[in-house]
Amino acid sequence: MRSDPDADPRGEPSHVIRESWRNELRILFPSGALAVRDALASTMDGLRHLRLDPEDRSTIELVLAEVLNNIVEHGYPDNAPGMIELYITHDPGGLSCVALDSGRAMPGKRLPIPHPPDPDQPPPSLSEGGFGWFLIRELSSDLSYQRVGNRNRLSFRLDLTHRIQSC
Asked: Which residues are the signal sequence here (predicted)?
């Protein structure tokens, strides 16, 4: 188990806890933009032994960043305190991911249905929301959301274009 201390925007110490097993990785961290950054770095470091193809590595990091930042921004708005758990299980064909949090439920307790951005619109008129979910849906598979009690559970799979070299 590894712990990475850092500070969050409120000036409070934050810790990212990483636990690794042969085919599994668990990341536990407090909600906050800086904590997401640290959790992503710890996650990617925890996946380093898989010797991922650079394209797959970029896709994994992008999807995880979108998912985790959405949790912070919408599940824990206004710097509300809370914890986020990320579980990743790998096999030769990809990664199965589960993100858990106790933040606010998704509107309607279901995943948003995004529309691709209109490239003909000037950037300032593009809405802030939706493009991240479009990316998540395009780059992952088996995406599902559940509200279980007071917890959100988002699960998805990241299929790899190149097989993992060592498990």
From this structure: none
The reported pTM is 0.83
Q: What is the dihedral of CA 71, 90, 160, 99, to 10 degrees?
A: -10
Question: In angstroms, how far is CA 48 from the centroid of its own chain?
Answer: 17
Q: Which amino acid is at 89?
A: T
- β-pairing verdict for 94-101 and 83-91: antiparallel
| Distance (Å) of CA 62 to CA 47, 66, 80, 90, 124 | 14, 6, 24, 17, 22
Q: What is the dihedral of CA 20, 26, 31, 37, to 10 degrees?
A: 50
User: Which pLDDT does position 12 carry in this prediction?
Assistant: 44
The CA angle 40-118-69, to the nearest 5 degrees, is 20
Which segments in the chain show pLDDT lower than 70? 1-14, 117-118, 121-130, 163-167
